[in-house]
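From the shared-data thread, chain only:
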Amino acid sequence: MKNQNIENEVKFKIKSVTEVKKKVLSQGFLFGGESYQEDHYFSPFHKNFAGTKKYYLRLRNKNDKCIFAYHIVKNNLQTKEFEVGIDSFDIFYNIMKLLDFKIDCIVKKNRLTYKKNDIKIMIDSVEKLGNFIEIEYCGRFTKKIKNKFSNLIKIFNLKNKDLIKGMGYPDLLMNKKL
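Structure, as tokens:
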């Protein structure tokens, strides 16, 4: 597993998972699997990450695999990610609590993943938030990739009003609580 990526991603709220799945498959994307993910977002004791929309410290439990990640948001499209695999979710979670990291929120979602060449599509059903599509590319965001994103947005009939700008699921959940 790579431990650092530049992730380029756009996220849209969607109404119908079934409709979007049909469009994704019609474009030659291959189904890569379904997973349940539970993401625990933390802030260190000396700094509050919650609501900053700039930093994320996440412990993910995905189909009995665990990943610890630190994300730095560069802009509305790009995030610099540092990730490492963890052997035990429970032990690592307890270490975080013992070190006085506080839980900001927990995001629970079912994810369908599709892939075509260098582009990934994720369709997420997020508890308490609804359904979303993410179009993702890891690497340098060139004009060619930008055009691929634009074409897919048109093909999938995604609307600008449904674009989630500069916010991840934890931000959406925490804003919903207010």
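The chain is about 25% helix and 45% strand.
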